[in-house]
Specification:
The complex is a heterodimer of chains A (418) and B (164). In chain A, helix 6 packs parallel to helix 8. The N and C termini of chain A lie far apart (49 Å). Chain A is built from 15 helices and 18 strands. Chain A folds into two domains: 256 residues, Aconitase, domain 3 (2-Layer Sandwich), CATH 3.30.499; 151 residues, Aconitase, domain 3 (2-Layer Sandwich). Chain A is an alpha/beta fold. In chain A, the strands form five sheets. Chain A has a five-stranded parallel sheet with strand order 4-3-2-5-6. A five-stranded parallel sheet of chain A has the order 16-15-14-17-18, with helices on one face. Chain A has a four-stranded parallel sheet with strand order 10-9-8-11. Chain B is of the alpha/beta class and 164 residues long. Chain B has a single domain, classed as Aconitase, domain 4 (Alpha-Beta Barrel), CATH 3.20.19.10. In chain B, the strands form two sheets. Chain B has a four-stranded parallel sheet with strand order 1-2-3-4. In chain B, strands 5-6-7 form a three-stranded antiparallel sheet, with no helix packed on it. In chain B, strand 3, helix 5 and strand 4 form a beta-alpha-beta unit. In chain B, helix 2 crosses helix 4. The longest helix of chain B is centred in the middle third of the chain and has 10 residues. In chain B, 47% of the residues are buried. The chains are: A alpha/beta (418), B alpha/beta (164). At the A-B interface, helix 2, helix 3 and helix 5 of A face helix 4, helix 5 and helix 7 of B.
């Protein structure tokens, strides 16, 4: 019987053929817990173990609020530092966990556990990267294993050439509108089709990242030449065999969805839910005044994104009534932007450059919103209170739409500024 | 009493990120639903139920959402459906997350859970509601969570959880 990519990866980590619905205990290639979730994993870990199973396979990034913005966060980070020192695990402070893992660790076919809901991001590299809570992370750090129910897969084929000004973020917002916040619950979302195969890995990471918003357990893109290119660009010598990883022709999918994106226009999600998606041109008519633009997060602040923003800002000044915050996703992206002259350019344009990390996405520091303020954000969550006051309004869009809105001061279709 | 919630209650509403900066469960209890339902943490009583619609616990992986509800004394969360990480965290922490139709449960209905028969008994309305409580959740509820279970039985006992 044929298998999906997810079933193949689980089988390889369980040591026998397994299929959707099977309960398994699988070996893990990597376990990640960050400056919020790791803090809660430490006490349960020491309840059941003294030493971690393999200190080289545990990744602890400080990204959610780093450097610490207040005493409470400093206390949490001190607790994690003590644990990491005891276990001989280095702490990484180079940017958002999912971005760092994609740049450095995630290989096609891996099974990776992350104590963060956006863990599906890494599936853009053809791996199975699954989000859990702190207790599961603690058990995984102790044993190198985790229990799973092998999930069903929904196949999503995307075809058609995107028009100018339309990006993978617009594609995933359109899909989120169709699926809703629960449409992918518990499933693996497997992306394919010509459009996805033409996307670079960074563009794919936006698709897999936002799959978490539909409740997906994991999201995956078939690894191909683009994946090879990305690994090579990041000095990673890893060979993989497409045939052993791609879904079989007779694999059983729960359903198959087909989308043609050749007529898609820039999309935007209104607060407070992921499926309140409209075309930007429609929202533009409302002349919604913007107080803050956030270009950042694990969804959209890679160098490709900053290339787009740079081009748009070259010809235009930023609206002085908007706080434009740019947070490169990682130290690598920051250095790339520095080498291209973007950091100096953005700074002179009066944008605010923040330390690589989660930035204001989760409302802990670096751009917290006040009552009734409007933010256009390239991140993934527009929940009430997510970025500050519960009365603030968060609109999710592509870096191009965010940049256009930073220029005009109201929510703006990016196509005339490209 | 029963605390009634709508669909898609996310972890940012249960324990908002900005307040979620402690590893003390009792501190978490004080900030539970702090903005979404400010009276909750002040008046919630041991043995109360959370009643919700679809996709309860969606959003982040923060297990503090489960820890906080447990610290508030919530006996069980009964919802039409749950988001997967929240559901998994409930299993791990031994908090009953019961899948059942919840439309006809009112704030003051007296409820009782029959784990064996997989029922939510609405004593006030004299109704029995069919519910889903998987064997793994029951086992870990009875062990007060997976960490106490592993502590008692050893790390090798993980496999035994899945033996029928």
């Amino acid at each position: 019987m044929g298998q999906t990519i997810a079933e193949k990866i689980f089988s390889q980590h369980v040591g026998k053929k397994v299929y959707a619905g099977d309960f398994v205990i699988a070996k893990l290639d990597l376990v990640m817990a960050h400056d919020t979730t790791c803090a809660w994993a430490i006490d349960p870990f020491y309840e059941i173990a003294k030493k971690v199973w393999d200190k080289k396979k545990i990744f602890i990034p400080f990204d959610h609020a780093f450097p610490a913005p207040n005493v409470q966060m400093a206390k949490l980070q001190a607790k994690i530092r003590k644990f990491a020192n005891e276990q001989g695990i280095p702490i990484t402070t180079d940017g958002v966990c999912h971005q760092i893992m994609s740049e450095r660790f995630i290989n096609p076919g891996n099974l990776i556990l992350g104590a963060d809901s956006h863990s599906p991001t890494g599936g853009g590299l053809g791996a199975l990267t699954i989000g859990v809570g702190s207790t599961d992370a603690a058990i995984a750090m102790a044993t190198g294993t985790c229990w799973f129910r092998v999930p069903q897969t929904i196949r999503i084929n995307v075809s058609g050439k995107l028009k100018k000004g339309v990006f993978s973020k617009d594609v995933i917002l359109m899909i989120a509108k169709k699926f809703g916040p629960e449409g992918g619950n518990y499933r693996v979302l497997e992306y394919g089709g010509e459009t996805v195969h033409n996307f670079s890995v960074p563009a794919r990471l936006t698709l897999t990242n936002m799959s978490a918003e539909m409740g997906a357990k994991a999201a995956i893109v078939e690894p191909d030449e683009q994946t090879e290119k990305y690994l090579k660009e990041n000095q990673r010598l890893y060979k993989f065999d497409k045939k052993s990883l791609w879904s079989d022709a007779d694999a059983v999918y729960e359903k198959v969805m087909n989308y043609d994106v050749s007529e898609l226009t820039p999309q935007i999600a209104e607060p407070p839910d992921i499926d309140r998606v409209k075309s930007v041109s429609e929202i533009e008519k409302k002349k919604i005044k913007v107080d803050q633009v956030f270009i950042g997060s694990c969804t959209n602040c890679r160098i490709e994104d900053l290339d787009v923003v740079y081009k748009m800002f070259q010809k235009n000044n930023l609206n002085p009534n908007v706080r434009t915050i740019i947070t490169p996703a990682s130290k690598l992206v920051f250095l790339q932007a520095l080498a291209k002259g973007y950091i100096e350019f953005f700074t002179k344009k009066n944008a605010i450059i923040l330390t690589p990390g989660c930035g204001p996405c989760l409302g802990r520091h670096g751009g917290v919103l006040y009552d009734n303020e409007v933010c256009v954000s390239t991140s993934n969550r527009n929940f009430t209170g997510r970025m500050g006051s519960p009365k603030a309004l968060i609109y999710l869009a592509s870096p191009a739409t965010a940049a256009a809105s930073a220029i005009t001061g109201y929510i703006t279709d990016p196509r005339k500024y490209l | 009493m029963n605390w009634i919630f709508r669909n898609n209650i996310n972890t940012d509403l249960i324990t908002p990120g900005r307040y979620n900066i402690t590893t003390d469960a009792m501190e978490l209890a004080k900030i539970t639903f702090i903005e979404h339902r400010p009276e909750f943490s002040k008046t919630v009583k041991n043995g109360d139920f959370i009643i919700a619609g679809n996709n309860f616990g969606c959003g982040s992986s923060r297990e503090t959402a489960v820890t906080a509800l447990k610290a508030c004394g919530i006996k069980a969360v009964i919802a039409k459906s749950f988001a997967r990480i929240f559901y998994r965290n409930c299993i791990d922490q031994g908090l009953l997350a019961i899948i059942a139709p919840t439309d006809n449960i009112s704030e003051n209905d007296k409820l009782r859970i029959d784990i064996e028969k997989q029922l939510v008994m609405n004593i006030s309305k004299k109704k029995e509601i069919k519910a889903v409580i998987p064997p793994l959740m029951i086992k870990l509820f009875e062990s007060a969570g997976i960490i106490p279970y592993l502590k008692k039985n050893g790390l090798g006992s993980l496999k035994k959880l899945f033996e029928v």
